[in-house]
Amino acid sequence: MNLTKRCGWVPHKDTLYIDYHDLEWGVPLHEDSRLFELLTLEGMQAGLNWRTILKKRENFVKAFDGFDPGKVARYNQRKVKRLLADAGIIRNGPKVRSAITNAKAFLAIQREFGSFDSYIWGFNENRPRINRWRTLKELPAATDESRTISEDLIKRGFRFVGPTTIYSFMQATGMVNDHLVYCFRYRELTGGS
């Protein structure tokens, strides 16, 4: 019997969720292509279960050229038609087209700030926010910070980046550590504090 204590949202026998939680969720991420990947996947997830995204993640990576924002920004209508015919991803026209729009806005941020990483992490002084939640009920769906980031992204032309989506992105990329205090990853990511 595995006695590892994880956050309560992780199903005990679901290896997709377990691997995502144990290896990725809440780990500070600073690589632009990975930040673009997670921002895109969070937008694709809107209204859906995150497990759906995890199951299709490899297909997304392949379909969206490894989430290279330079390549995605150049997608044309023919590529959009191919993506919308790809059963391996979420075939939602507005979401697929938003990935292209967002790639263009992402590149503009890279030009302005030197990297998307510098821009996005600048909202929280380049260090993770460490929360001390004890129950799942305490976790917010959005925060003032996620609302501020969402508003700024929207002004810059991004779509599917509402405050709840952005808060999920912040959790996924380690901008906030929302592992519950009893979770083994909380201790690992905070150095035991």
What do you see in this structure?
- This protein is mostly helical and 193 residues long.
- It has a single domain (26-190), classed as Hypothetical protein, domain 2 (Endonuclease III, domain 1, Orthogonal Bundle), CATH 1.10.340.30.
- It has 10 helices and 2 strands; from the N terminus they run αααααααβααβα.
- It has a two-stranded parallel ribbon with strand order 1-2.
- The radius of gyration is 17 Å and the shape is globular.
- The protein starts with 14 loop residues before the first helix and ends with a helix.
SSE diagram, text form:
Layout lengths: L14 H9 L8 H14 L4 H14 L5 H4 L4 H8 L8 H21 L2 H6 L7 E2 L13 H12 L7 H10 L3 E2 L6 H7 L3
Parallel strand pairs: 1-2
Helix pairs in contact: 2-3, 2-6, 2-9, 8-9
